[in-house]
Amino acid sequence: xxxxxxxxxxxxxxxxxxxxxxxxxxxxxxxxxxxxxxxxxxxxxxxxxxxxxxxxxxxxxxxxxxxxxxxxxxxxxxxxxxxxxxxxxxxxxxxxxxxxxxxxxxxxxxxxxxxxxxxxxxxxxxxxxxxxxxxxxxxxxxxxxxxxxxxxx
Length: 153
Hints:
two-stranded antiparallel sheet, 2 strands, 4 helices
């Protein structure tokens, strides 16, 4: 995904950078939502989605640091739900205020509704590749461990 310094970053590095970006974005959304004067239902839903995104980002960061596949798969499940919930929320919010928003805002919202889930699921695809790499690495380590035990040394 990212060619930095003329070589491809490992999936572990990409997942760590991705986790840090998601954590920063979630904290920014939470800070923005907490400073609003009026705190309605839409703000509460956005705050909940951002909190789940923050939790998922922490899971991925810990999974990348510790090379723990369980935490990476937790990220995949939580972020899939977050992406679907955010997309459904934006569609509902756009439908509810269709007559009260300008055409330019409608265009931006529709583009966001189309592009954001695609980017989110690409991000999840990259993380699945990292989780499968961890699984393959673990199975190789177990196989070498069994050979070590069978040899007796």
